[in-house]
């Protein structure tokens, strides 16, 4: 049955949403970074994006419609701060040389990690960036403004711009990978919050914890707390939970110690029967994801929730999680939120970084 509201109700709801988000837009958000207003960021037309990972740097150039004009991937100069700045500047110049009409393109940068309100990098797996004002230094190197965000925010922007959430006014995006993070886009604008914390969904406690499932207090998190959502819903979190009830899986996962074998192992786990211990771990995973997303719906009530990252590839999520989340949502009727996989997959990081340039600054 179609549970979406009638057209008049929808129009009214959209009108309310529009008024609400206008108020939000008037107050902020405040996407990074320092520097002054630059007219090239307001209507740049061409957008250069960089996804700075721990092992590779992905870069591309988009036109104003999101068409990819140029793309290049290079190894990350690990441990070399000045070298990282240098190769990103070289990539940007190479793209501009190939497409001279994009000489005044905006530049956006995505990193796996987070940014402090001061623009300094925190918790990046490219550890040589931590504590450094990488965005400001890249601005000096390039001689132009740079907009910077974490990978979950880039996913949210990319999928909102022309991905799974392209028709939605509000999009909450979640990365379920080696880590877990979230990002919120309202009316195509990234909402980062007054302290740059919006969307840090991975480091809130798993809601409605079950002691019989080992959720109280839950696993110790690298952030210093216990029971964080990331500890349960990351790939390593599922592996740990499966290992607790399946010795063979634990040995396999412990021996692997890297994402790729872990991913293939967890796929095997997801394909096995619910009768075995690994299947039970997957069942707990789906229940935990439903609870975590129900909390998001109770607070934000987004039109679309988009999932990215390695764990997002499991099809059962999209059928079973919406069936389960109703038990935890404060509503006596079905909600309209749609749960969808990322349309652009792994490319959402670099595409979202490019779309950052269209965010401008205030
Ligand atoms: Zn944590």
Please give a quick description of this structure.
This protein is an alpha/beta fold. 40% of the residues lie in helices and 17% in strands.
Can you give a write-up of this model?
This protein has helices at 7-27, 39-42, 81-98, 134-142, 151-162, 229-233, 235-245, 247-256, 259-271, 277-299, 316-325, 348-356, and strands spanning 47-52, 56-62, 68-75, 106-111, 114-115, 121-122, 147-150, 170-176, 180-186, 189-190, 304-308, 338-341. It has 2 domains: 39-163 and 348-356, ATPase, nucleotide binding domain (Nucleotidyltransferase, domain 5); 170-342, ATPase, nucleotide binding domain (Nucleotidyltransferase, domain 5, 2-Layer Sandwich), CATH 3.30.420. Strand 8 and strand 9 (180-186) form a beta hairpin. The relative contact order is 0.16. Mean pLDDT is 79; it is low at 1-43, 244-264 and 268-275. With 362 residues, the protein is of the alpha/beta class. Helix content is 40%, strand content 17%. The termini are far apart. It binds zinc ion. Residues 203, 221, 223, 225, 228, 230 line the site of zinc ion.
Topology:
Elements lengths: L6 H21 L11 H4 L4 E6 L3 E7 L5 E8 L5 H18 L7 E6 L2 E2 L5 E2 L11 H9 L4 E4 H12 L7 E7 L3 E7 L2 E2 L38 H5 L1 H11 L1 H10 L2 H13 L5 H23 L4 E5 L7 H10 L12 E4 L6 H9 L6
Parallel strand pairs: 1-4, 4-7, 8-11, 11-12
Antiparallel strand pairs: 1-2, 2-3, 5-6, 8-9, 9-10
This protein binds zinc ion.
Percent range for β-strand residues: 15-25%
- The average pLDDT is 79
Rounded radius of gyration (Å): 21 Å
Number of helical segments with 4 or more residues: 12
What is the assigned CATH homologous superfamily of the largest domain?
Answer: ATPase, nucleotide binding domain
Largest sheet geometry = 5 strands, mixed
The backbone outline, from C-alpha atoms, is globular
Main sheet: strand order: 3-2-1-4-7
Portion in helices:
40-55%
The CA-CA distance between the termini, in Å, is 44 Å
The CATH top-level class label of the largest domain:
Alpha Beta
Uncertain segments are 1-43, 244-264, 268-275
> Which small compounds were modeled alongside the protein?
zinc ion
CATH topology value of the largest domain: Nucleotidyltransferase, domain 5
Tally of structural domains: 2
CATH architecture of the largest domain: 2-Layer Sandwich
User: Which structural class best describes the helix and strand composition?
Assistant: alpha/beta
Q: What order do the SSEs take from the amino end to the carboxyl end, as H and E?
A: HHEEEHEEEHEHEEEHHHHHEHEH
In total, the number of strands is 12
